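User: Please fill in residues for this 626-position structure.
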């Protein structure tokens, strides 16, 4: 969720303090990054004259930190005026945005709608006791979740509002915008571990949008937790980083030990700003990352969006985003060192560095200026091929300018052959196949109690070698105005559609509000387990999670029944949250991983942001995979 804009001449607040900020000269490569750990930046874009601001001062304050908006980051100044970016971008740009009930008190509305007593146990992966800053300020809301599991070990991560109020450094890394929890008993209970470790929190912070993946090799279990990783000053590279975490100990005493940030992706272009002898970088904003692992080849892939530095403020420039990807070496089959020097605990990642073109691109910035967003990767474990899906014309479809007011909104599926995926600075080649599926977008739908307003239509992918398919699920308003969950599958070779039209997975409850689906991998039978948020009707804000279990990727008919995941419906109209969106931009699920082919077990883990307690919390449930 992000965007950036408006490079006019800024009159900095520091002028009043005696720092005369003049026009900024544009230079070539600067190699400047705010704070220590400076990296060479490669070629820079040129821009019109621009002034720096008080962003160059120290940003870590006793009560937390300044927001990207307060620091004058162009992307943040324009966020949500048209471009649709991630929850992590909103966290970085806007900071806390307290909001509460928008409906009559529950006592005036009757009892809370039930979930199901037969649903699997619902477990809060976080602890509200952890959501208190060192100065005693309580934070409200943990949202936007991701989950993965291996054996009896489960990790869940989320956007953590405690970061709004906690200074660097804080106990349990509370200053970080990405929190996480760990279970050593198969998801029956969790320990809230605070924020991801980050020794450089004085200059960069994790800013949410988590993705979690599990990997078992050499008799050990690892989890990788990815996130936005932003400079506090708003100057320098905006990155995607991850923590490589290893399960240590055994039995009930096992815990998760996470390392320092590993950069997965960086801004691909920067402009160089001058103030006298000082030089500063302002760079592309990277957004909405997600990760996928190829355990057969010991690789990790990251797909993400890159929003460009705007060199002149023209409305059609602000949406020119690309969909990029990168790769990491996780070692070898024994858990030792891999061909690029990576190990499971210390992956070596190829992202080509700040100011250089990305390792790989599946969608260049649209020549029509319509936004690309919502990248999601999936791997064919038989061949090593990587599929990446994303949405075209998201956000820009409601902004009213040509040609995005006539270009069809679509979910796009791309295929990148394994021969392209070199362990090098850049991929050896790119997309071999591409197709677009038209979407009737829910981008203008305002969901009561959802403080972002509308859900994104971006796709989720899963590969089934047994079925010979790659499948895409998304929310869509073509059949029912309030939204359905659609499935369409494609042959692995040429991406030929399997179904003539998408299948409506929520058909047993069609006509209700259905949105934010999740699917990650096929289960051991080669079928799909898809979960999502659902409401019984437009007249309620009570929200449950449903799942379609063991769906054949080649089905042409809707499932006969659905599984209700939640034991209690959450009333979104009566929840308190410091985070926008209060229930995140996505839900997640994952089939438990194993160390041998087909690399999946028999348990499905479902994760969502749940408001039954009156504030959003990261919940988990598990049940047999189909």
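Assistant: Residues filled in for all 626 positions:
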């Amino acid at each position: 969720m992000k965007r950036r804009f408006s490079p006019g001449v800024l009159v900095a607040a520091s002028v009043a303090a005696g720092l005369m900020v003049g026009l900024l000269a544009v230079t070539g490569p600067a190699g400047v990054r705010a704070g220590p750990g400076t990296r060479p930046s490669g070629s820079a874009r040129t821009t019109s004259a621009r002034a720096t601001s008080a962003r160059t001062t120290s940003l870590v304050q006793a009560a937390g930190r300044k927001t990207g908006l307060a620091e004058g980051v162009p992307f943040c100044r324009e966020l949500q005026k048209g471009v649709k970016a991630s929850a992590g971008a909103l966290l970085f740009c806007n900071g806390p945005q307290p909001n509460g009930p928008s409906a009559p008190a529950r006592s005036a509305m009757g009892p809370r709608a039930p979930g199901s007593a037969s649903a699997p146990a619902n477990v809060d992966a976080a602890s509200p006791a952890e959501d208190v800053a060192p100065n005693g300020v309580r934070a409200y809301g943990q949202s936007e979740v991701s989950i993965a599991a291996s054996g009896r070990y489960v990790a869940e991560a989320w956007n953590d509002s405690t970061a709004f109020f906690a200074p660097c450094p804080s106990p349990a890394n509370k200053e970080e915008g990405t929190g996480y929890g760990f279970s050593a008993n198969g998801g029956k209970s969790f320990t809230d571990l605070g924020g991801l470790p980050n020794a450089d929190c004085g200059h960069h912070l994790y800013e949410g949008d988590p993705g979690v993946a599990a990997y078992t090799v050499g008799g050990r279990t690892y989890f990788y937790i990815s996130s936005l990783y932003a400079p506090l000053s708003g100057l320098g590279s905006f990155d995607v980083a991850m923590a490589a975490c290893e399960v240590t100990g055994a039995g009930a005493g096992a815990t998760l030990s996470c390392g320092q940030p590993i950069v997965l992706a960086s801004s691909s272009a920067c402009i160089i700003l001058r103030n006298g002898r000082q030089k500063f970088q302002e760079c592309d904003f990277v957004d909405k990352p997600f990760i996928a692992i190829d355990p057969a080849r010991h690789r990790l892939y990251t797909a993400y969006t890159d929003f460009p530095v705007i060199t002149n403020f023209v409305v059609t420039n602000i949406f020119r985003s690309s969909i990029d990807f990168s790769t990491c070496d996780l070692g070898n089959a024994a858990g030792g060192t891999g061909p690029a020097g990576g190990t499971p605990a210390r992956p070596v990642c190829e992202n080509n560095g700040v100011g250089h073109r990305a390792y790989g691109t599946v969608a260049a910035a649209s020549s029509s200026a319509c936004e690309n967003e919502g990248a999601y990767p999936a791997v064919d474990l038989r061949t090593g091929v990587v599929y990446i899906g994303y949405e075209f014309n998201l956000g820009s479809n409601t902004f009213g300018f040509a040609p995005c007011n006539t270009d069809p909104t679509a979910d796009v599926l791309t295929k990148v052959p394994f021969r392209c995926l070199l362990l090098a600075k850049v991929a050896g080649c790119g997309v071999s196949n591409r197709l677009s599926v038209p979407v009737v977008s829910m981008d203008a739908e305002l969901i009561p109690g959802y403080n972002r307003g509308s859900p994104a239509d971006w796709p989720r992918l899963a590969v089934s070698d047994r079925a010979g398919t790659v499948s895409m699920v998304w929310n869509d308003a073509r059949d029912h105005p309030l939204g359905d969950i659609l499935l369409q599958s494609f042959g692995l070779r040429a991406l030929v559609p399997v179904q003539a039209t998408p299948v409506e997975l929520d058909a047993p409850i069609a006509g209700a509000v259905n949105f934010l689906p999740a699917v990650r991998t096929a289960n051991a039978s080669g079928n799909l387990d898809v979960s999502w948020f659902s409401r019984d009707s437009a007249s309620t804000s009570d929200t449950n999670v449903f799942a379609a279990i063991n769906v054949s990727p080649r089905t042409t008919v809707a499932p006969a029944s659905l599984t209700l995941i939640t034991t209690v419906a959450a009333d979104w109209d009566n929840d308190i949250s410091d985070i926008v969106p209060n229930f995140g931009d996505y839900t997640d699920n994952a089939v438990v991983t194993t160390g041998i082919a087909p690399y999946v077990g028999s348990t499905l883990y479902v994760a969502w942001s749940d408001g039954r307690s009156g504030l959003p919390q990261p919940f988990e449930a598990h049940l047999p995979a189909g």
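For context: The chain has one domain: 13-126+140-597+616-624.
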